[in-house]
Amino acid sequence: MLLDERESKALCDKLLGYVTADDAEVSVTSGVSSHLRFADNAFRTSGHREDTDVSVTVWIDKKKGSATGNELDAASLRGVVEQAEQLARVSPVDREYVPSLGPQNYRATKGFVEATANIALAPRAKAIGDVIAACEKENVVGAGFHHTRGSIVAGASRHGNFYFYRSSLASLSVTARTREGNGSGYFLRNHFDVSKLDTARVGRVALQKALQSRQPRALDPGSYTVILEPQAVADLLGLFSFRFDARMADEGRSPFSAAGGKTKVGQRIFDERLSVYSDPWNPELPGPPVAFGGIPARKFFLVKNGVLENLVYNRYWAQQKHAEPSPGPVNVIIEGGEPPTTQPAMIEATAKGLVVSRFWYIRPTDPRTAALTGLTRDGVWYVANGKVQFPVHNFRFNQSLLALLAPGNVELIGAPERVSRSESQGESAALFPAIKVKEFHFTSPSEAV
Amino acid sequence: MAPSRRGFLKASGVAIGAATLPPWLLELEAAETAAVDRLQLAEIALSTVRRLGATYADARINRYRFESILTRERQVQQVERSQSFGLGVRVLAGGAWGFASSCVVNADEARQAAQQAIEMAKANAAYQRKRISVVPAEKVSAKWKSAFEIDPFERPLDDKIQFLLKLNETAMRVKGVSFVNSQLEFVNEQKFLATSDGSIIEQYIIRSSPVISVTAVDSAKGDFAQRRSLPGPKSIGYEYVEKASWQAEAEQAANEAVEKVKARPVEPGKYDLVLHPTHLWLTIHESVGHSTELDRALGWEADYAGTSFLTPDKLGKFQFGSKRVNFFADRTQPQGLATVGYDDEGVAAQRWYLVKDGVFVNWQTTRELAALIGRTSSNGCLHADSWGSVPFARMPNVSLEPSQDKVSLEDLMAGVEKGVLIYGDGSYSIDHQRYNFQFGGESFWEVKGGRKGAMLRDVAYQSRTPDFWGACDGLGGEDTFELGGALNDGKGEPSQANAVSHGCPVARFRQINVLNTGPRPA
Questions:
Q1: How many Å apart are CA B486 and CA B179, to the nearest integer?
Q2: Residues 452-471, chain B, touching A (beta carbon < 8 A)
Q3: Phi/psi of residue B372, each to 5°?
Q4: Interface test mutation site (partner A, options B21, B303, B383, B387, max chain A beta carbons within 10 A)
Q5: Residue B220 near chain A (CB below 8 Å)
Q6: A365: nearest CA in chain B?
Q7: Which helix (H) or strand (E) holds A209?
Q8: Nearest to A347, CA basis, from A242, A226, A257
């Protein structure tokens, strides 16, 4: 069972009570998760997990040590603290030490639903059984992953700070493949409220994509105009907000570093309609009320109207640079600054291009330009004269994200919707729109379906 | 044989007297308590599920310890020790799996986890369409310990910090170096398994991983380059830190980072490639290791990692690569990260060919997978990354056999007119059926007229698995064989990490497509 706020506070206090060091931060994370995985139209694995971790970081004469454990009896808790203190005693001085925070004001967010954290097994088995039955009816082979979790995070400091928040998540991804192996579709959705996760819809959309992607034709790789569905945007940009680190940029080793030892803050780096920000109180995407280092989270722009507005400062680097530590990002939202364009309208406005459903195995190739390689997967369609013409084979791409979103390359932007990066298996969440770009670089074909 | 816990405690107690060694004493005491109870707790879980109708079950009670030290330049950024202890019960009932786990290890929790696992299996069985079964395994009672000379968890922390700071100092002495990051990471798994077959197995596993990364920045141009160390993690003790030539590696990484920032970008086109084992292990992992997993071939990973172009009909027929190419799976390989005594359902470690004389000849299997292809035994590939994770098919060490002749790196380069020599693993990506891949690296050198030339940068090569291995026309001898690997190969839903090694000699590949991944269009 998940710990509540009172129990978490008591555990934090107990840990702090064992501390003899000059300064300390402690945290408690507790989670309950459950999953049902299916493939080849049958259940494959299913599991339930409960765990609680305690972490302790201490400083003795500014020397730091950290320890983590998951045994909660008094002797083990004391052991974790003693371990951290022993490590601190034999460590060199932590030159980046910043005293732990005193009491902060955290504004609560609403991202927890009890029924999500404690999923009922029989209804879940039936819901996934129904998805499999739908696949069987269309003579398609279904695979997928349904998982739920509830978790709490609590933290406290020697200087009197304390925070606690709960979150929950229910997620379903479905991959539907035709028996002949010539078509494949994928759909993933998640929500913090299990009652808002439409499992039948997830299965239905994956099925439709599988049927619509049958018998793809080969196209030559090259530069294409591309309509990126929100899932494809999530796959490409889902981790991008974590590259806005101020220290890396100041040190000259980031895509936001500029010549002469400067950064690109204040420069228009993206299309002027695009804004990238974090908002813990967005009702569709509630984030934690606590940003990195215990800083209270608040709405925080990285990019506003295409201009690089902020880089992300931790408490140490903020102190070095006389800046404020950043209150985010704790989630990520991308918006266009004009009425959104629907995906059908994007297709109608395309003389020649491709619709990309999702990407796979995305890895960085050049940190200077935020360049990535990866592949399309589970549905690419050729568009000509404003209409989808036929499915095409997958491609490998090599594409700089800075070039992708640069002024002049973004043509149309859709309405943001809640999506999750497919390589996160539904664990992440973001509000991203479909985006139509003028040029996207495909470098080789892939026969994989 | 697993170490005696009392002996281990005693040894630790002596070392604690040195004062520089933070004690694992309290944890070890807890472990000892658990050791006394584990068989009894497992029996509670197994008897509960037997009574409730399980046709097969296993109980695992495991402790995992991690130590990590992170430094940059002249400072220590993080020193952390963590551990995780818990129990997991897996049951097969009504033709469906159920699994439940808890971080609280006592008789009540063992009983409750067993009941939860059965409830889950039965809830799933009501809608299950294909009944699951497992092939038999021999009943085993064993203790096994991985091979190491010095347990890194018994080594003074100060030694480790001084080792890293000295590495950083060595790198920083090289003119043009801007930043240095280094890390030591140690893993210890203490695993206990009891199965409803009657097997009882204890294992004690150690893994060690030193890494250094050097960055050179040309701030006037706003340019930078990074070079990471080449040797990978291994299942070996602290002797890996003490005996390998890490200072020389740091100096070489520093020199190459400085050289790389000024190096000439590669001209895209077709090249012959000469690949060092510090690079080629990752290509083997992605294109051979994953494509020969039977669960992928059967579509079980379709929703995440994908399927495999090696469909079941290709077994024994498909020409995977040139005739000189032989790949073997080996859970007994010395220093291999996936080397174990037994897998997580009690099957003994084995060695077998996956590709022989260029032909695809065998799979990686578990007891469940073996049953699906008419086999009577598993080759031992079931693994879970935690007491709280559901075990499933994971990769053994998969390696490329060297040439039986004495062939050197220079011998292979001698046969190349226009080529690239690549060291170290860099960017990596492969499609979901393991055809189309692209790999970068750490250091790239022009090969011209049979000799190593100037350094290049922004190199990646792209190929198709059977084409690439078909283009292999030269392998180095045993002297060039090295083991690379990773601690964190991800697979499955929920995703689990697997530690796995891949050995290979230097190797040559003809006419492979090379891209420039730098700021110029690829």
A1: 24
A2: 458, 460, 462, 464
A3: -75, -20
A4: B303
A5: yes
A6: B427
A7: helix A199-212
A8: A226
CATH label, A5-212, candidates 3.30.240.20, 3.30.2290.10, 3.10.560.10, 3.10.180.10: 3.30.2290.10
Length of chain A: 449
Task: Report in angstroms the alpha-carbon separations of B137 from B1, B199, B362, B397.
Answer: 21, 9, 19, 21
Dist. CA A429–CA A325, nearest whole Å: 24
Q: Do the chains contact at A90 and B158, CB–CB below 8 Å?
A: yes
Q: Closest to A43 (Cβ–Cβ): which among B23, B96, B427? A: B96
Neighbour tally for B404: CB within 10 Å? 9
For residues A381-395, give the mean pLDDT.
98
pLDDT-based confidence at residue B520 (cuts at 50, 70, 90): low
Q: How far is CA B44 from CA A192, A447, B165, B194, B328, in A?
A: 36, 51, 49, 11, 40
All structural domains of chain B with their residue ranges: 5-262, 264-516
Any B CB within 8 A of A1 CB: no
User: Does B392 reach chain A within 8 Å, measured CB to CB?
Assistant: yes
For the residues A364-388, what does the mean pLDDT come to? 97
Residue B3: pLDDT band with limits 50, 70, 90 = very low
Termini Cα distance of chain B: 54
Cβ contacts of A259 on chain B, cutoff 8 Å? 219-222
Instruction: Provide the 3-class DSSP secondary structure of residue A294.
Output: helix
Q: Is B314 on the interface with A (CB under 8 A)?
A: no
How is domain B5-262 classified at the architecture level of CATH? 2-Layer Sandwich (3.30)
Report the gap between the CA of B443 and the closest CA in chain A (Å).
Answer: 14
CB count within 10 Å of CB A187 equals: 26
Chain length of chain B: 522
- Across the interface, do B217 and A251 touch by the CB < 8 Å criterion? yes
At residue A126, the pLDDT reads 96
What six digits make up the tokens of B296?
A: 């992928």
Write out pLDDT tens, residues B68-79. 999 999 999 999
| A349 C-beta neighbours (distance < 10 Å), count | 15
Alpha helices (runs of H) in A224-360, residue ranges in sequence order: 230-237, 246-250, 315-320, 343-348
Identify the closest residue of chain B to A128 by CA–CA distance.
B127
Question: Which residues 363-382 in chain B show a CB within 8 A of chain A?
Answer: none
B320-371 per-position pLDDT tens digit: 999 999 999 999 999 999 999 999 999 999 999 999 999 999 999 999 999 9
Chain B residues in contact with A44 by the CB 8 A cut-off are 97, 300
Using a CB-CB distance cutoff of 8 angstroms, which residues of chain A are in contact with residue B84? 51, 53, 69-70
What is the predicted pLDDT for the residue at B214?
98
Q: Would you state the pLDDT for residue B129?
A: 87
Task: For the beta carbon of residue A386, count every other beta carbon within 10 angstroms.
Answer: 13
A118 CB within 8 Å of a chain B CB: no
Sequence ranges of the domains in chain A: 5-212, 222-238+337-446, 240-331
For residue range A330-343, list pLDDT tens digits in order: 999 999 988 999 99
Taking CB atoms and an 8 Å limit, are A177 and B302 in contact across chains? yes
Identify the burial level of A10 via C-beta atoms within 10 angstroms of its C-beta, where 0-12 means exposed, 13-18 middle and 19 or more buried.
middle
Determine the residue among B79, B293, B433 to mutate to test chain A binding: the one whose Cβ has the most chain A Cβ atoms within 10 Å. Answer: B79
State the smallest CA–CA distance between residue B97 and chain A in angstroms. Answer: 6
Phi, psi for residue B465 in degrees, rounded to 5? -45, -55
| pLDDT band at B318; cut points 50, 70, 90 | very high
Q: Tell me the β-bridge partners of A223.
A: A441
In the Cβ-directed half-sphere of B34, how many Cα atoms lie within 13 Å?
A: 24
The verdict on B440 touching A (C-beta cutoff 8 Å) is yes
pLDDT in tens, A300-323: 999 999 999 999 999 999 999 999
